[in-house]
Each structure stands twice: as structure tokens, then as C-alpha cells.
User: Which sequence fits this backbone?
């Protein structure tokens, strides 16, 4: 099913335990590395299997469109992209985490991205997304998975819908700023993937977020 969803999306247009370190740019504690809308509509919330470069058909399409990374060079490619993103996201409130040799995740808390119960991006955050898009254009050989997440307040169905709309909005902004649509998938997970305790105010705030996961496409 997931493969079919990915193919449908492409036809329409074409996610650590361990020690932590302090990010020198954002001040965030992060895991230590060593220890478009047509695609959005076609994929929807069911396309979990296409995320994180997990679908061969999608990877092949991205590789054909923008070129793949030689397998031995993926680490250096992602290193350079990570450095650029950390420089751009300094003092922005966006967390940059290297989660694997070929994977980078940007964590965008909802309080800097959206107003309460809204899915239109705050005007002051548009420039941040434009900066992200700039780097994505410079390093095109990655898939771009945009995942919306909510806390557990309110009905499940509402949280799912809101998280999808927020993921869609971020994905659309990246595409509007020149990121190739074939690279982008947006999925809302609602309250299904918390990263903190929903029983606390701080935990709920942490769970309300959009994550952008970048995965290198290798040849």
C-alpha cells in the first residue's frame, strides 16, 4: 500500500537515545552523533512507509530528478548540509539534530511556527523556512519528510487534522521557495508520536511541533 501511495504522489507531480551534547548554535541538548502540494494531497496521513527515504520507488524518482549521492560520500555530503543548517538556524529556535550518518532532523516548535489552533505559518517564521529551503536547494540529493505532531489535548481526529494541515503548510512553503516537489512528503501524526510527557505543560508544548527529516539518497 505504501509503495502505491508513493507512486501516486509522484504521478501527481512529481524520524536517539544516548549521550547528549549542547548545540553551539541553538543551545539545544541533542544526541551525540558518535555514542507541494500535489504530493501532499496524494500521500496524506497514511503514507508512513514512504518516510525517511523508506520507499525505493520514491528514492529512484528523487535520484532521477536531482541525482543521487555516491554511497561512500554520503557522510561528507550530510556533514556539509548539517553545518550550513546549523549556521542558518542559529538563534531561530529550530533544533538541528544529526540522527544518523545520512539523516538530519529539524525540530520546529509550534510556538514559533504557528499561532494556537492555526495552520497558517507565522509571518515572522517565513524567512526561517526560506533559509531552510535555500540549503535544501544547495543539497538536492535528499528526501524531505515533513511531519506534523500535536499534543494530546482535544479530540484525536482534530489533532490529526491540525497536524496534517501544519505539515502541509510547511511543505508548501518549502516548495514555494524552490525545493523540488518530487523530494517532499508531508504527513500528520496527530498525537501518536510524543517526545515528552503530555501530562505537563512543558511536555505538551514540546509535543506540538513540525519536524523536517532529510535523508540522503544514495546510488
Assistant:
Amino acid at each position: 500500500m505504501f509503495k502505491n501511495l508513493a507512486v501516486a504522489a509522484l504521478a501527481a507531480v512529481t524520524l536517539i537515545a544516548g549521550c547528549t551534547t549542547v548545540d553551539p548554535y541553538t543551545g539545544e541538548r541533542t544526541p551525540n552523533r558518535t555514542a507541494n502540494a500535489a504530493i501532499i494531497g496524494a500521500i496524506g496521513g497514511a503514507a508512513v512507509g514512504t518516510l525517511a527515504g523508506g520507499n525505493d520507488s520514491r528514492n529512484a524518482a528523487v535520484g532521477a530528478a536531482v541525482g543521487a549521492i555516491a554511497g561512500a560520500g554520503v557522510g561528507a555530503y550530510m556533514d556539509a548540509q548539517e553545518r550550513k543548517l546549523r549556521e542558518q538556524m542559529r538563534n531561530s529556535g529550530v533544533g538541528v539534530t544529526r540522527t544518523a550518518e545520512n539523516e538530519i532532523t529539524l525540530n520546529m516548535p509550534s510556538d514559533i511556527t504557528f499561532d494556537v489552533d492555526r495552520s497558517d505559518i507565522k509571518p515572522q517564521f517565513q524567512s526561517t523556512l526560506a533559509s531552510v529551503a535555500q540549503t535544501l536547494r544547495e543539497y538536492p540529493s535528499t528526501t524531505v519528510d515533513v511531519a506534523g505532531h500535536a499534543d494530546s489535548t482535544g479530540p484525536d481526529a482534530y489533532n490529526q487534522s491540525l497536524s496534517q494541515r501544519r505539515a502541509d503548510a510547511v511543505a508548501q512553503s518549502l516548495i514555494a521557495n524552490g525545493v523540488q516537489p518530487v523530494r517532499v512528503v508531508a504527513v500528520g501524526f496527530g498525537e501518536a508520536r510524543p517526545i515528552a510527557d503530555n501530562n505537563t505543560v512543558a511536555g505538551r508544548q514540546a509535543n506540538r511541533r513540525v519536524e523536517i527529516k532529510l535523508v540522503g539518497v544514495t546510488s
User: Anything to note?
Assistant: The domain at 2-216 is CATH 3.30.1330.60 (60s Ribosomal Protein L30; Chain: A;).
